[in-house]
Write a structure and sequence with these properties.
334 residues, 11 helices, Rossmann fold, alpha/beta, 7-stranded parallel beta sheet, 12 strands, 5-stranded parallel beta sheet, binds nicotinamide-adenine-dinucleotide
Length: 334
């Protein structure tokens, strides 16, 4: 059975080949790695395959799904948790099965959230460069203790809970907002209304999915409710925040610091070396001009443990679908 894996990076090949060889000894899959992202223009690359595998920035739109159907492909394997990039209603109508990796390592993303916060707070990125140049001045490197600060988590699913455990360990007061409260969270903190969370938190961290209801959840109105000089962290999905509103809040000094691992227009930018190119995205470039903004290129998931789990669950989903016609990780429209 053949799988076309779109948006393939060198590390995808490393982990998928290893897992295919070591964990699927009875039935190894043929994996065709394609660097191109899945779009209407590239979908034909899947010709001859039985399934495709995509990541966060592939465009699994209705026309793409129709083209897949025409190619005789009935399975889309998401090698990620989020599924906002796929038209699920169209997939269901066409009889195309979609499976995802619901949790590969919540700790990977939660720990990256902490790395972003600690970098911005203690300026380790600046200290690294300074010390290498023989500059041992502490000017500009003043940070704050995390201990005793209030951290507001928007979303207490798997990643939000992993983050809550970390911040509890740091001695933070942990607040959260989630329409579906978790019994476990109550051991780490307190649920409050979103406006209370925004008003009381020194750090606000987003851990909810991108849905119509959460699109631009952090907008000018919600930024105005935040504590003066607070830090905002987004490791979930770019479109959870209204980026021009963030820029206005940074310019007015309302927002004290911003860390993002995701960006609404990340599709044409992330996961590639663009260091020799001119980046035309003015909003992104404005963000990069602030000394109190830290951007990473969607690497929250990127640990050995998570990559192994992603490859294992993705291929496992396909094996189960082939054997039984269904699997626990199927994604269907709400
Ligand atoms: P999850 O499904 O376990 O938890 C999401 C939580 O958000 C749920 O408890 C849900 O009730 C809550 N939620 C929904 N709407 C909300 C709202 N309006 N306000 C507050 N909470 C709301 O998901 P997870 O595994 O914790 O992942 C969270 C998100 O992290 C994913 O949707 C994905 O976008 C993102 N993610 C990013 C990376 C990365 O590499 N940066 C990796 C994996 C996942």
């Amino acid at each position: 059975m053949k799988l076309t894996l779109f948006g393939a990076q060198r590390y995808d090949r490393t982990f998928f080949d290893r897992v295919n060889r070591d964990a699927f000894t009875d039935q190894q899959f043929v994996i065709d790695y394609q660097e191109a992202l899945l779009t209407e223009a590239t979908v034909a690359l899947a010709k001859g395959s039985d399934a495709i595998c995509v990541f966060v920035n592939d465009q699994v739109t209705k026309p793409v799904l129709e083209a897949l159907k025409d190619l005789g492909i009935g399975v889309v394997l998401l090698r990620c948790a989020g599924y906002n990039q796929i038209d699920l209603a169209a997939a269901q109508a066409l009889g195309i099965k979609v499976a995802r990796v619901p949790a590969y390592s919540p700790e990977a993303v939660a720990e990256h959230t902490l790395a972003l916060i600690m970098t911005l707070n203690r300026h380790t990125h600046r200290a690294f460069n300074r010390v290498r140049e023989g500059n041992f001045s502490l000017d500009g490197l003043l940070g704050q203790n995390l201990h005793g600060k209030t951290v507001g988590l928007i979303g207490t699913g798997k990643i939000g809970l992993a983050a809550a455990r970390i911040f509890k360990g740091f001695g933070c007061r942990v607040l959260a907002s989630d329409p579906v409260p978790s019994a476990e969270f109550k051991a780490y903190g307190e649920y409050v209304a979103l406006d209370v969370l925004l008003a009381q938190s020194d750090i606000v961290s987003l851990h909810c999915p991108l849905l119509p209801a959460t699109h631009h959840l952090i907008n000018a109105e919600h930024l105005a409710l935040m504590k003066q000089g607070a830090m905002l962290v987004n490791t979930s999905r770019g479109a959870l925040v209204d980026t021009p509103a963030l820029i206005a809040a940074l310019k007015s000094r309302k927002l004290g610091a911003l860390a993002i691992d995701v960006y609404e227009q990340e599709g044409p930018l992330f996961f590639q070396d663009r260091s020799f190119e001119i980046i035309d995205d003015e909003v992104f470039q404005r963000l990069m001009s602030f000394p109190n903004v830290l951007v990473t290129g969607h690497q929250g998931f990127f640990t050995t443990e998570a990559m192994t789990e992603i490859a294992t669950v993705t291929l496992g989903n396909w094996q189960t679908l082939l054997q039984t016609g269904t699997c626990v990780n199927l994604v269907v429209p709400d």
